Every structure is written in structure tokens, then in C-alpha cells.
Task: structure prediction
Amino acid sequence: MSPLRIGNLQLATPLLLAPIAGYCDVSFRVIARACGGVGLAVTDLLCPEGVLRQTRRSMQLAATCEEDSPLSMQLYGGDIDLLCEAARWAEDRGAHVIDINMGCPVDKITKRDGGSKLLCNPDNTVRMVERLIKTLRHTPLTAKMRLGWDDTCIVAPALAKRLEDAGVAMITIHGRTTEMRFSGHARLDGIAEVVAACKTIPVIGNGDIHSPQDAKRMMEITGCAGVMIGRAALSQPWIFRDTWSYLTTGVIPPPPSIEEKCAMMQRHFRNLIQYRSQFAAIVEFRKRVSWYAKQMNPCRILRDAIRVINTPEDFDEAISRFLEWRLAYDDGAYHDDPRDAESVESRHRQAV
Result:
């Protein structure tokens, strides 16, 4: 498999962690990186005004650490002057890549002429990119886009080629239109058209990658140089490790043990305290437990306990009790019971 380069930046793998708004902050990125296989991670969408004013929220979203490398900082918006200032701000703070979001379909982004709204006026978008490239001193500029606003304006192949000519170092293409949002299926033929339009820069495919097999299929069908994985990573941060192994050896490693999964949760929780606050960690994990639970069943004990935590001690107690029960369950302690696992968990909750 050919190595993936973004300008002068050499990535260890062609697998990218997507900038999922509200989920992929540094607290989570270092968890995915620790599992292995992540070639590049991208920050949450950064508002130029927010980073320039250094608002608390923007600084939380832009936070990084030594382990969080290489890192792409993603900016959005339609004000070219602010974007240029913010791009230099990100460059000065060590971003390895600056990415311009041309794909977010959310109204609060598109109404500010950002995200996929940039697809509606390709001429202005190309001029904006040309200015950004002149502004940056040494950091490669990339773009993440969708196929078009809707099926009447599929602009991605032509725009990607123009962006390549302007000096963009990589294109990431989500195989849906803005109008589709996250419904339907990512269109591999649309991604393939963008790949064909770009002659010298890598194109990364995005959308509906739920397994290593999905990643391989997208790369084989579209010819893309790599894939960006988003929501699947929230429940299985080790998907990058598994995918890289599958692409290079054809073998998918065994999943992490239940102890290792619990350790990931504990580290993620402590990261949230470190980079945000104790309150944020508690509130966040009341929601995030559902994502981890997708790969930990049976785990109703854990879901129910985490959803009512009020302190870090509550969190540790919930993990400890679940792990004690789950190890006993996995050892066969309850397997002679005719009732299902949910009933066993219910009785255990009453006992403790």
C-alpha cells in the first residue's frame, strides 16, 4: 500500500479520524490514537471568530497535547479575512494541517456561509482558497467537502480539480449531498469521480465506514488513497487498528478485552476532567456510555449506573461493579440460568 503524504507531511497510515462535532475533542482523540492505526485526526469545527478571541469554548475545541499528533485543525466560515487570520493562528499553534470545512450540512453553519454552502459558489470558494494558501507559510491546506448541495448541483469533481490547481494538498469527500444530510447511502461512484478528477493529490473517502471491510471496499471501488472514519470510532476506537491490520495483512485482530474497554472509558473520563472540567466529564459520560455500550453487551448495569453518576467516585464505582459482574458472567457463573442476560443483570443490581 502506497504511503499517504499531505504536502510534506508523511502519515503512518491512510486512516483519518473525522471531526465529529461535539465528540472528537482531544479527550477522545488520544483514546483512538492509543489503540493504534490513526494516521491523522481532525479537530471539531473551529469558528474563526472564536479562536481569534480565544473564547473558552473555542479553546476547548482547539485543545491538543503531545500525544495528539499529527493533527489537522478544521476551520469553517465564509469570511475570508477571518479565515486567513484563523489559519495563521492555527499554524502558529502547531497544526500540521489546516482543513477548510466545505461539507457540514448543519443549518447554523451553512447560514453563516460556511460548510457545504461553499459548494454553491465555486468561484468564490476557489478565490478564498487561493488567499488562504498565500497566507500560510509552511502548513498544507486541505478541504473536506460533499458531492454538492443537492442532485441538481454535483460540483465536487470539478471543484476538487480547481482546488488541486490552486494548491490544496488533499481532498476529503463525503459521498452524500447536503440535502441528503446523513440519510441514504454514501455514493461510491461520486467519490470515484472526485478521485478521477484529481491527478496529483490524495483523495480521502468518507461515509458509511463501519468496519475494516467497508474501508477496503471503498478504497477498492473508488481508488481513494485512504478513508476517514467517524461515528463507528465512537463505539470502537480501535477500528483504526483493526482496519490498518486488515488492509495490510488481511487479518482483523481480536477485539479488546472487557477490562481493556473499561480502561479506555476510565482514561476518557479522566481526560475530560483534565481538558474540560469534572462537571463536563460527568455530563458527557452520561451520554457517551451508550456509544461504548454498543461493543460491550451485556452491559445494562453499566448503562444504568453511568447515567446517574454525580461524582468521579460514582463513575469509578459503576465501572468496578460492572467489571466484577461481567467477569463472573463471562466465566460462566450465570450461564446455567434459563433467564436472559438482562434478567441476570437486574438481579445483580438488586443484590448490590
